[in-house]
Amino acid sequence: MTVRLDTVDRKILSELQKDASRSLDDIAKTIGASKTPVWNRIKKLREAGVIKRTTVELDAEALGFEACFFVLIRTSEHEADWQDRFLTALQNRPEVLEAHRLAGEIDYILKVIVPNARAYDKFYQALISEVRVFNVTALLSMEELKSGGGLSLDP
Question: Which one is the CATH code of 7-47: 3.90.180.10, 3.20.20.510, 3.40.830.10, 1.10.10.10?
């Protein structure tokens, strides 16, 4: 279900996507509104499910996670039981930052952040011991060019 947003809602969301740690006063001043209406709108946007959660973005390399792999998975298994086991395996692995089911020749793509290639191999061995897959291709990201830009909220 799509939520209707007015111009003020869009401005608030754009500012929150840039830096959600900013004070309400700062956000209100930036968008040309007062603090209480901004707070009320944020509250309504949370209740409507537009704002899912507030979190912090960490620098993976600064924490020793220097390898980002995109893992392409093909499977010949499409039964509900296999999908449940696969989803459980992914949810139990904090190194999987994103997982998407795809249309086309590749069934799933995972974004996996680990300290190094050895850690990736450990992840890979654990994953294939839990769920059967037909083919796995791992692509090492050499450089991140863009990340976390936020949604474009232009009408």
Answer: 1.10.10.10
